[in-house]
Amino acid sequence: MNILLVGSGGREHALAWKIAQSPLVTRLVCAPGNPGMAAAAEIRAVDATDVAGQVALAREIGADLVVVGPESALEVGIADALAEAGIPCFGATAAAARIETSKAFSKDFLARHGLPTAAYGVFEDAAKAKAFLDRFSPPYVIKADGLAAGKGVVIAPTRGEAEAAIDDCLGGRFGKAGARVVIEEFMEGEEASLFALSDGQTSVIFGAAQDHKRAYDNDEGPNTGGMGTYSPTPALTEALVETARTKAIVPTVAGLKSEGMPYRGVLYAGLMLTGEGPKLVEYNARFGDPECQVLMLRLESDLVPYLKACATGTLASLPPPIWRDEAAICVVLAARGYPDAPEKGSVIRGADADFGPDVTVFHAGTARNAAGDLVASGGRVLNVCARGATLKEARERAYAAVARIDWPESFHRTDIGWRALGR
Ligand code: AMP
Ligand code: GLY
Question: 225 alpha carbon to ligand 2 midpoint, in Å?
Fold first, then answer.
């Protein structure tokens, strides 16, 4: 099988690493890819959101399957264009991906189908949005409607800050993404990420992980795309997964199908484990990053048949995926200044050393400079991942590898896994 993998982050490196292990694969091309992925695949310089370029590349390599990593490519219709070209695609159409790309669409969809989530309102008018705050008590949750690279959500401790966030959003801070503002009830609880694959008809649970969204230790500092993950998740018990599956995943897949936009790809449920059971914080139309990294380390089954089955509507014919009975952890090394203004260009040494069979370093925001050195080219730059018999062992292995990487211009959290280890 020839496979084209679209994207260039740590999530895509982890997918490439796993796909490359499949005996079914003859050729794997990643576009635009990154220097880490070059070890597992051919790299081609086509942007993830260059739909025409990606379709042309898929044709050129005779792709039997295109796997789409980032939501940005889904939003601009890569799955629709591939469908037109008759090329199987793991990834949702632009219409179905609105479950992530438009919070207003997503919240309205959840409300239409009576799915468990926070109460909310959507506004284009600041005065009406501010009046709606009366319904809630602090803290207030204010969100830009569209994609804002994880920066569109404000949890405001006071009414004044909530009103300022509304003015900010509708005042153009996020451009088009902030033309509408969503106000939500605050949900209290522990967060977890649950993944399900769907072929438009059926769905299958595909692992769970917990992320650390704040930049610094003790969950302090600004929100980020995620500073580290682990799997399995003791807080998200099998019973809670089953509740989330029947109360959220299954009706979501059925609802999208009945509304004429069957969902093909991975559905990522951001859950809040509240006193009343799991509730949806949000849906994403892609694997989590860096959740995907720990899932790939733990997945025993071949990934490729699952990806292909989602794209071709044959998921029901596959057995449930098998997971290693081990824990996995991912520690993100970020460039100084992330998330606001990451410094680019600093040289990283030792990232490609042999850390032993249980440690894998995925590249996220890396590039090569003219001299051929590995340099930072993004905010989240490396994902140091490890497996172990226990989370504690996995964590020790990951941090031992982190200590061996020579990159003074970086920072990372030293407490990944604290919730699970403290249990
Ligand atoms: P989102 O981009 O919607 O995932 O929001 C980013 C983060 O804000 C989430 O991971 C939660 O930690 C927090 N958050 C979002 N919505 C709520 C809510 N209704 N109640 C409590 N926390 C929330
Ligand atoms: N790690 C969170 C996300 O991918 O949205």
Answer: 5
- What ligand 2 atom has the least distance to the C-alpha of 150? 5
Q: Write the residue with the smallest CA distance to atom 5 of ligand 2.
A: 288
* 119-184 CATH, one of 3.30.1490.20, 3.40.980.10, 3.30.1490.190, 3.40.50.720: 3.30.1490.20
Give the residues surrounding ligand 2 with Cβ less than 6 Å away. Answer: 211, 225-226, 284, 288-289, 291
Taking only Cα atoms into account, the Rg of the chain, rounded to an integer number of angstroms, comes to 21
User: pLDDT-derived band of residue 178, with 50, 70 and 90 as boundaries?
Assistant: confident
- Name beta bridge partners: 191: 272
Tell me how far CA of residue 291 lies from CA of 21, 135, 206, 279, 400, in angstroms.
Answer: 19, 34, 12, 19, 21
Query: Domain-by-domain residue ranges, the chain?
Result: 2-95, 119-184, 190-317, 327-421
Query: pLDDT exceeding 90 applies to what percent of the chain?
Result: 93
Can you tell me the distance from the alpha carbon of 398 to that of 403, in angstroms, rounded to the nearest whole number? 9
Element at 127 (helix H, strand E):
helix 126-132
